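Repro:
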Amino acid sequence: MRDDAVIIAGYDPGMTVSTHYEFGTDYAFEDVFPDASAIAGVKAVFASMTHRYLCFGESGASQAASVASKTPWAICIGTSKAWKATDRGRVLNLVRMTTSHQETPRFTSSEAEREMYAQWPDAVAVGDVFEVIGAPHVMDDLGMETHPLLQAHDKVSALTPERMPIIEALRGYRIRLVDLPPLPAGVTLGTVVPSAVSAEEGNAVMKLVRELERSPKLAKLVKTLNKDANGGSCVCEGCGFRDADAGLFDAHHRRPLHVGVQITTPAIMSVLCPTCHRVVHRLGKKPYLPMEIDDLRTWHAGRASAAVKEAAD
């Protein structure tokens, strides 16, 4: 098996698409796509895929890139009357769309390509492409009563109830991974975050939280002692960051409070900037014990040394 012939067919690890396939080998459609969960819909194409991009009219590529993050696969059906009429109405390919979409000329590699797709200004990058062996006709071979394209020229048309039967109808057909030329230099897969990725925030919620009792007076005293020792500015004991505003610093308990009730004194506390405070807790050797301050300084020194070496190289 060639290394470049092994692919991850499912764009998202959570998809129910199988994983490893080899160029030139036939697979059962239902083995690769056991259900429709990874399939966004259908797309009209001129003919069988020969390039790693799908062309669209206005806004079609951004729509395809948006759905590609969750349902990356599209069923491509021939629709051209003039170019290759024998492909019209036939299921030609299954393509894994990506979230990378740009103007079509960015994907083309020749003037002939640019002229061919001039009427389709935008395109989405494509990862894996399967050809459907035999290119079944949606009506004559798959027995669908309604042609499933229905406005699929300028977008990926969703699997509405009249299109959904195409998934079941393709069971029993064989598909084969196609080895297509790579995308032009500078064009990558999935560099654009889908516009549909969003979340509503800002709603007021009620939460019941249990906190460990702390002494604000003790924290203030620790910072005051630090300022007095450093000429009126707080200084992070880890990285050396300094500022007169004590609010930019945290009072760190070197023995964390969640270990148990304790009598805390300034002698067992340190003043850290928020970043160093997070570092000592995230990089502690034990889940319940933070990194020692000396170890924090060593960590900083190692990072500084590595940065100098990288700059010199």
